[in-house]
Amino acid sequence: MKVAFFDRDGTIIEDYLDHEWTRIEHPVFIDGSISTLKEVIKKGYKIIIITNQYIINEGYITVDQYHDINNQVERELTRQGVELLDVFYCPHGKCEGCTCMKPNIGMVKQAIHKYPEINLEESFMIGDSAVDVELAINIGIKGFGIRVGSNYKEGNIYQLNSVKDLPLYI
Asked: What are the tens digits of pLDDT across the range 128-140?
């Protein structure tokens, strides 16, 4: 099974400064993200969201607030005909030293443990921050960075201007 690992905040929905998340009640989808997810599925990929949510343990939002936003994301995607295989999140603070926070590979390992049929050679990671690209490098899969700069000279790392550009590369 080939999997498209998507970051959530800044890739599928709008991202905010850490302290602003406290007041966010509804996700705002990034222009083109839903159509991109549909295209990725049409190309035979399953979608898994992998998201750092350090703002939970750092006290900006509660676990319930995270789940409320994420459930709204999942409901809207389902309504739009986008089926997610799964969502993995890391609630740990930046200073906790966990192995799941991107760019560490813990969430991908969790996905492989739950879905052993995942073929990493045919899978990729996409996100809007350096940690997303670095996760792809660390796990050895193709990676797509949305406006993350051109510091990555790896052979299977691609720079995108927008999530809407992804279908051209897969």
From this structure: 999 999 999 999 9
Among 7, 15, 128, 132, the active-site one is 7
Give the start-to-end residue ranges of the domains of the chain. Answer: 3-168
Distance between CA atoms of 143 and 102, rounded to whole angstroms? 13
Catalytic hit among 9, 15, 128, 132? 9
**Is residue 86 among the annotated active site residues?**
no
Q: What is the pLDDT of residues 105-153, one digit of tens each?
A: 999 999 999 999 999 999 999 999 999 999 999 999 999 999 876 666 6
Q: Is 165 a catalytic residue?
A: no
- Phi, psi for 4 (deg, rounded to 5): -100, 110
Instruction: Say yes or no: domain 3-168 is CATH 3.40.50.1000.
Output: yes
